[in-house]
């Protein structure tokens, strides 16, 4: 500093489609509302010369560090860019506590990822990047707490389909100053081309994404969305992928929406998708040698262990049957569905999960994961009578022996203590659900492994399922009501179902209870600032079943949002 | 660090192409550094004012550490900085994004010192004189294999390799040579009564490490 810097030569370039999507009963799907087209104002930030036109983001906070992210768009093409950053305790960036420099290059698609360490726990920080003489917008983030913690408040989202609508949900979350983080449970991007699954906004590229360049381009488009930028700028993100970050109904060796004959090998496509994902998301890679294994956990003091699962690319066996979600794909738990070798997580991740659950000392074990864990039947029956008819073989219903192994851990026995206070957080199905978790929900006798829907007895944990940010559900209210009326008698453990609203979940946990509020926006067909509290359910410590709750009180001491 | 330089010298190897010390030749020095504060220091002469190129090609897409280099020309009992470059992959084929290098057309005759080390920060050198030292002076050495460099890619956890490969083209008498540590230079100059303001160390650059907690 303070002296002329040697001018050096500039480097140049010698060297560089879901539950209701798939789970709507066919008869219901036929009555779903048509797609809404709009000519409204685009929420895409207009292209500009800013080097940080894709915004800033932070993610995967720990008690002493957090990932800071941006992407550099040089004014003129360059293969290498030096980037500086500062971290401060105030929004004016006057009390700088950390600073540094890094580089990025075209092999990383000029994305920047810094693991800013040496920070204090449970502290809100503000950060900014600078490159090529321009400063980025100021971001805001927060580290995790240690030790005794009074509460956790966080937003939970999933299924953000750019083509299907505007990210009004993200904007509402950006306006909340009192949340500790945002958890995205997957389907952060969608792989389809323009008009293939949503036509409110065109896709970049216009075709289905397959190559590395394709995936990068799609991530870049999502990152240019103004509402996405607003949310990512204000809160640390903890994200996992589901299937659409690669291709619909992905499993370890393929996907419904991958045709090897015309789209190349599946491993090549997965490698491209994950490279772009790690480049463009504020995510800390767990194992650089095995990028598909991103299951991990976060300790929120002694209050919450947030356990995040990978359910697509690490060890999932192929879904059974076809026509998943349609009447032709309905199934019963027989034959291959009873094969214990069919994994959803894979043996290694499954063992890791069981160990995490059994050894956690936290009051709450929140499991963030992709596909619905609770049984959802189109025809109910106790297990002694065959268990009924299921419709979604892409969810845990399609992997019942694997799910039973999870229940074995929750129930304890064989020398193991039961695991209480487990809350499963789920996305994927573009609809809102609250469920008690029972292996035999249509058996009303808890003493024989059944479930009492009036008291919750027999439930071993609970599940909160969040609706989509923008992907479609059963958007016609009458059709949704018809579906719910059909589902309810077969599923006494499902305490709340909403199929026609987009929105997010707000989790508020303390030592005594874990509350989930469902918040819904009025539309995604245009930019709108309207949201409404829908309902709240809670689970009380030690009870392992749901009761109705009320809207929680926002914190009064929330740190200032970033300017 | 002087000790680590010693290890550098021991580990390094040199290949010369183009012959004798009397004429401009091409040289290659390779070896391994151990710590992030290590530096490779190579002396050479230029006699004919010809074209000179100095570069690394060992970054190898992040397999090895990110190098930075500075060229000094001897001026009296000190050295004056000619040029400092962090990244330049345009000097020769085989370089990668973060390799370093520099090229001169008609470099003045004289005695030179080419110094390459892990890229801590820009600038690498504290000032225009060698006696001003380097930005990493005083830092606790960290094994490169355990160090997250400023430019490391968290997605790849890369740049942990210690190997360097340095090329010098169009120079004479290139030798990997121990040179006095900046403080030693200062002491020598003091003994000669030439202290003046030369030995005042520059305040360390603000951007001194990959991540400073301040």
Q: What would you note in describing this structure?
A:
The complex is a heterodimer of chains A (563) and B (214). Chain A has one domain (147-548): Alkaline phosphatase D (PhoD) (Purple Acid Phosphatase, chain A, domain 2). In chain A, 16% of the residues lie in helices and 25% in strands. Chain A contains ten helices and 26 strands. In chain A, the strands form five sheets. Chain A has a ten-stranded mixed β-sheet. The longest helix of chain A is centred in the middle third of the chain and has 15 residues, at 266-280. Mean pLDDT of chain A is 91; it is low at 1-42. By secondary structure, chain B is mainly beta. Chain B has a single domain, classed as Jelly Rolls, CATH 2.60.120. Chain B has helices at residues 2-11, 182-191, and strands spanning 13-17, 25-32, 40-46, 52-56, 67-75, 78-85, 101-104, 110-118, 163-176, 212-213. In chain B, strands 1, 2, 3, 4, 5, 6, 7, 8 and 9 form a nine-stranded antiparallel β-sheet that branches. The longest helix of chain B has 10 residues, at 2-11. Chain B is globular and about 45 Å long.
Radius of gyration of chain A: 23 Å
Number of domains as seen in the coordinates of chain A: 1
Distance between the termini of chain A: 28 Å
- Which term fits the overall shape of chain B? globular
The fraction of residues assigned to DSSP E strands of chain A is 25-35%
CATH topology of chain B: Jelly Rolls
Q: Which strands sit side by side, in order, in the main sheet of chain A?
A: 5-2-1-11-10-9-23-24-25-26
Helical fraction of chain A: 10-25%
* CATH class bucket of chain B: Mainly Beta
């Amino acid at each position: 500093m303070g002296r002329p810097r040697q001018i050096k030569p500039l480097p140049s370039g010698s060297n560089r489609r879901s539950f209701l999507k798939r789970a709507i009963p066919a008869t219901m799907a036929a009555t779903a509302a048509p797609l809404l087209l709009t000519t409204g104002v685009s929420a895409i930030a207009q292209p500009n010369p800013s080097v940080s036109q894709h915004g800033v983001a932070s993610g995967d906070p720990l008690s002493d560090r957090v990932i800071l992210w941006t992407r550099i768009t040089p004014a003129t093409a360059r293969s290498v860019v030096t980037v500086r950053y500062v971290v401060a305790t105030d929004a004016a960036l006057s009390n700088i506590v950390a600073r540094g420099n890094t580089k990025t290059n075209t092999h990383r698609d000029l994305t920047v990822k810094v693991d800013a360490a040496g920070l204090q726990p449970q502290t809100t920080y503000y950060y900014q990047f600078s490159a090529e003489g321009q400063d980025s917008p100021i971001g805001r983030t927060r580290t995790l707490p240690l030790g005794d913690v009074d509460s956790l408040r966080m937003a939970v989202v999933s299924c953000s389909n750019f083509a299907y609508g505007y990210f009004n949900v993200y904007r509402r979350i950006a306006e909340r100053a009192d949340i500790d983080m945002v958890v995205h449970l997957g389907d952060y991007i969608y792989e389809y081309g323009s008009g293939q699954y949503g036509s409110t906004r065109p896709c970049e590229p216009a075709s289905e994404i397959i190559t590395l360049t394709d995936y990068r381009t799609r991530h870049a488009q999502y990152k240019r969305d103004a509402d996405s930028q607003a949310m990512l700028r204000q809160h640390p993100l903890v994200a996992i992928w589901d299937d659409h970050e690669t291709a619909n109904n992905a499993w370890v060796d393929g996907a419904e929406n991958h045709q090897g004959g015309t789209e190349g090998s599946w491993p090549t496509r997965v490698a491209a998708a994950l490279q772009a994902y790690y480049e463009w998301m504020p995510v800390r890679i767990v194992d650089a040698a095995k990028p598909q294994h991103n299951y991990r956990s976060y300790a929120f003091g002694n209050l919450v262990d947030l356990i995040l699962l990978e359910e697509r690319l690490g060890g999932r066996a192929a879904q059974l049957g076809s026509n998943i979600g349609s009447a032709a794909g309905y199934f019963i738990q027989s034959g291959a569905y009873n094969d214990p070798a069919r994994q959803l997580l894979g043996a290694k991740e499954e063992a890791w999960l069981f160990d995490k659950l059994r050894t956690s000392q936290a009051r709450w074990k929140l499991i963030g994961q992709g596909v619905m864990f609770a049984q959802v039947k189109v025809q109910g029956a106790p297990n002694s009578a065959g268990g009924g008819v299921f419709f979604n073989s892409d969810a845990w219903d399609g992997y019942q022996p694997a799910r039973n192994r999870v229940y074995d851990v929750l129930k304890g026995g064989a020398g193991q203590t039961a695991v209480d206070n487990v809350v499963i957080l789920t996305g994927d199905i573009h609809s809102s659900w609250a469920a008690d978790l029972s292996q035999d929900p249509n058996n009303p006798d808890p003493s024989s492994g059944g479930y009492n829907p009036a008291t919750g007895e027999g439930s071993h944990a609970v599940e909160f399922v969040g609706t989509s940010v923008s992907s479609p559900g059963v958007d016609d209210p009458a059709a949704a009501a018809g579906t719910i009326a059909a589902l309810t008698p077969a599923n006494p453990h499902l305490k709340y179902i909403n199929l026609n609203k987009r929105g997010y979940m707000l989790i508020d946990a303390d030592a005594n209870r874990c509350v989930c509020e469902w918040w819904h926006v009025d539309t995604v067909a245009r930019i709108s600032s309207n949201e409404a509290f829908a309902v709240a359910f809670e689970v009380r410590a030690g009870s392992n079943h749901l009761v109705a709750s009320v809207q929680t009180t926002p914190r009064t001491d929330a740190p200032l949002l970033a300017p | 660090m002087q000790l680590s330089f010693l290890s550098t010298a021991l580990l390094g190897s040199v290949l010369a192409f183009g012959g004798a010390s009397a004429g401009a030749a091409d040289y290659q020095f390779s070896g391994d550094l151990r710590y992030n504060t290590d530096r490779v220091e190579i002396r050479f002469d230029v006699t004919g004012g010809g074209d000179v190129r100095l570069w690394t090609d060992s970054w190898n897409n992040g397999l090895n550490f990110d190098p930075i280099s500075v060229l000094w020309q001897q001026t009296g009992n000190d050295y004056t900085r000619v040029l400092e470059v962090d990244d330049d992959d345009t000097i020769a084929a085989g370089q990668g994004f973060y390799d370093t290098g520099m090229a001169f057309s008609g470099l003045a005759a004289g005695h030179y010192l080419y110094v390459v080390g892990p890229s801590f920060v820009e600038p690498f050198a504290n000032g225009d004189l060698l006696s001003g030292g380097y930005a990493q002076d005083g830092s606790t050495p960290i094994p490169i294999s355990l160090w997250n460099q400023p430019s490391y890619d968290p997605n790849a956890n890369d740049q942990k390799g210690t190997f360097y490969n340095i090329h010098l083209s169009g120079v004479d008498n290139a030798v990997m040579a121990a040179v006095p540590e900046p403080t030693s230079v200062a002491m020598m100059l003091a003994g000669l009564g030439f202290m003046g303001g030369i030995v005042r160390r520059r305040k360390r650059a603000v951007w001194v490490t990959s991540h400073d907690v301040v």
